Amino acid sequence: MPSTPSRVADWITLAKIRVNTLVVATTAGGYYMATPGDVDLARLATTCVGTALVAGGAAAFNQVSERDTDALMDRTRNRPVAGLRMSPGEGRIVAAVLSAAGLGILGATVSMLAMGVALATLVSYVLCYTPLKRYTSFSTVVGAVPGALPPMIGWAAARGSIDELAGWSLFFIMFIWQLPHFLAIAWIYREDYSRAGLPMLPVIDHSGAMTGRQMALWAATLVPVSVMPTVVSLADQTYGIGVLILGLMQFALTVRFAWSRTKTNARVVFSASIIYLPLLWALMAVAKLGK
């Protein structure tokens, strides 16, 4: 008989620490790419801690709001609030404490601009994306906005501004990368989403034809967008060539899914997207140009 998760384990699940590792990593990537010289490791660490706390708070608010639909889906029904091991009130308190602590750290020790971008991430995730999931498949596009903002938190922390196209190139890469990634997830778990009454595109698109076209279209769009750091002189041509090859490979996998819409092909697209992103950031970091 499986053991009941501990309180600490429930708090970790509520804050989605494993998933939010990506948030912290892309925040650090944005900070590094924005830094012209040596990286201030203490400031970077503080930025990452503050961002991680805000991301954890956002995840906690999300789980409180979605506790009814989470309880209907196999992959989420054991979350602490959905599983009735934690009250909604406690979940909200944890979410508020994490969010306030993260925003306070960013505002007091990094910059008000970094705090402002983190606040925009929190608000757009909790008050826009989360409620929209119940009403429209367009929520996936809306949800890509807070998912793409973490590099801008890092950029704001390092530069003190977010008015450069070089910084926004990181936002656009992350924004577009998420769409085929999450469409693949939604296809894999479409029965779960349907059971919960969430109108994700693969739920309302029964044949999957539109899902396949959308996935391929976004993957194709990512190919030129991912080269933007080279165009704006943020990274050299080594990055541009490398990411072009990566993008074309990922696009080919989405085309294969569009042609044959199986869970296996969707899992391949999902796995490829997970591999693609760290390789992109690694290439960018190695090929970074002094600014």
What would you note in describing this structure?
- With 291 residues, this protein is an all-alpha fold.
- The protein folds into two domains: 163 residues, Tetracycline Repressor, domain 2 (Orthogonal Bundle), CATH 1.10.357.140; 127 residues.
- It is built from 15 helices and no strands.
- Helix 3 runs antiparallel to helix 5 and helix 12 runs antiparallel to helix 14.
- The longest helix has 25 residues.
- It is flat.
Keywords:
single chain, 291 residues, Tetracycline Repressor, domain 2
Can I get a quick summary?
It contains 15 helices and no strands. With 291 residues, the chain is mainly alpha-helical. It folds into 2 domains: 1-163, UbiA prenyltransferase (Tetracycline Repressor, domain 2, Orthogonal Bundle); 165-291.
Number of helices: 15
| The level-1 CATH class of the largest domain | Mainly Alpha
Q: Specify the biggest β-sheet.
A: none
Number of domains: 2
Secondary structure category: mainly alpha
CATH superfamily of the largest domain: UbiA prenyltransferase
Helix content, binned percent: over 70%
Rg:
19 Å
How many strand elements? 0
